[in-house]
Amino acid sequence: MTGKEIDSVTGVETTGHVWDGDLKELNKPLPRWWLYVLYATIVWAIGYWIVYPAWPTLNDTYTKGVFDYSQRAEVGKEIAAAKEAQAKYFAEIAATPIGDIEKNQELLPFVMAGGAAVFGDKCGPCHGKGGGGAVGYPNLNDDDWLWGGTPEAIQHTIEVGIRSGHGEARDMAMPRFGLDGMLKRDEITDAAQFVLSLSGHGTDTAAAGRGAKIFTDNCAACHGDAGKGNQELGAPNLTDGIWLYGGKLADVEKTIETGRGGVMPYWSGRLDPVTLKMLAAYVHSLGGGK
Question: How far apart are CA 66 and CA 57, in angstroms?
């Protein structure tokens, strides 16, 4: 078919193309305004390629554009400006003893904001977003501290870690009374019954009575005769009902048997001194600091 005709349904001229015998193509071009917009975007794209970085090249770089613009450079400038604005705060934090930071109401909001950000990134995965802890990871909101809850003690723990491999790490470890054959199975059970009795938990009275001597002979040197603990050794208080690995009989038996021995990484050398101080101040503020 070579001639054109007017479609009887739409009143639009056809192009002369027919498919399947009766399917005709209408000659209805795109609106001019639409075409002008398309042409404008093409021109804009070409101009953008010319003035801004755009195309990768074969030598592992890209076309710089006549403006020589770099988003990376802009971000670098913004970071530098932010650091310059924060410099006076960092200098003041560095010069302020950690115990005095909470007294400085002008500095404290900056310290808390910075400490919270670092905590969420470095500490939250283990201790929880709000510091509530989990089994094997201490709750930082209560007032029970293995190595001390003062700002200075918290800062030192963060710096050196616990059994972390650092030369000054908090490194006392509870003996593995079961794994190393120091106590028999029934002696471990009796000792666990006595330990539970120290915090007022219901126990087997007879077993707890037998466990008292086992505790005195094997545990009191670190935990104290009354089980109050010793922060210089990282020995927990057994009388307060706060349990790092669980307070059920089976949990306490497991602790006596294996010694547990959790590990906390050290952050000195990984975080700068000012950041460490902000982090320690923030942890102290969570509610359990002393």
Answer: 16
- H helix runs in the chain, sequence order: 32-51, 71-95, 98-101, 108-118, 124-127, 151-160, 185-198, 205-218, 220-223, 249-258, 273-285
- Percent share of the chain, pLDDT over 70: 98
- What is the reported pLDDT for 122? 96
Q: Any idea which fold 75-164+265-285 has?
A: Cytochrome Bc1 Complex; Chain D, domain 2 (1.10.760)
14 has which bridge partners? Answer: 26
Interatomic CA distance for residues 153 and 265, integer angstroms: 16
- In which residue ranges of the chain is CATH 1.10.760.10 found? 75-164+265-285, 185-258
Binding-site residue set for heme c: 123, 126-127, 174, 219, 222-223, 264
- Report yes or no on whether pTM surpasses 0.90: no
Residues 6+ apart with CB under 8 A from 128: 134, 137
Helices (H) and strands (E) in the chain, counts: 11, 2
Known binding-site positions: 123, 126-127, 174, 219, 222-223, 264
Structure confidence at residue 3 (pLDDT): 56
